[in-house]
Amino acid sequence: MVKLEEEIKQKSFSNPYHKLIVNILYTGSWMNLLNAKHLKNFGITLPQYNVLRILRGQHNVPASVNLISERMLDKASNVSRILDKLIVKEHVVKKTRSDDRRGVDVKITKKGLKLLAEIDRHKEELEGSFKTLSKAEAGHLNELLDKLRG
To answer: Of 94, 109, 126, 130, which sits most exposed with the smallest number of CB within 10 A?
Structure first.
């Protein structure tokens, strides 16, 4: 086990809460890097993957851009730009709503579903990075993170 202090070359923190803040930020960055490397093999980014998973979760019901934005893990994501890139890759389609020309419905394509199925087949590779925790520890950490967010 490598301690945070060793990873970032900092001898101490002012208190446990300060260390927790730095540790969560550092660990989040580490996790994003792992995910980005994993998804690069499939030709998509983490935000694109997030959008595809949101749309798959819609069970073939179109989603609005606002719905996708609300469900994004990274709230600062530019959903319109992400959708444009996924349209070029033929993973999603956008259609102007007939009842509201300002509204747009977004759906995942069969090609997008196929890509997610392929990524799902390789999720063990990514999850292997977290096997340093037991299932019970992972469950407890999930509870603590939920508690932290209130």
So the answer is: 130
Domain boundaries, the chain: 1-40, 43-124
Write down the mean pLDDT value for the chain: 93
Is 43-124 assigned to CATH 1.10.10.10? yes
Q: Which two tokens stand for residue 67?
A: 């719905």
Rounded to two decimals, the pTM is 0.88
Dist CA 3 CA 19 (whole Å): 11
DSSP assignment of 99-150: S-TT-EEEEE-HHHHHHHHHHHHTHHHHHGGGTTS-HHHHHHHHHHHHHHH-
Contact, 105 vs 64, CB < 8 A? yes
18: tokens are 């300060």
Check if the beta carbon of residue 86 is closer than 8 Å to that of residue 94. Answer: no
Please give the helix or strand (H or E) that residue 96 lies within, else none. strand 92-96
Burial state string for 74-109 with b = 16 or more CB within 10 A and e = fewer than 16:
eeebebeebbeebeebebbeeeeeeeeeeebbbebb
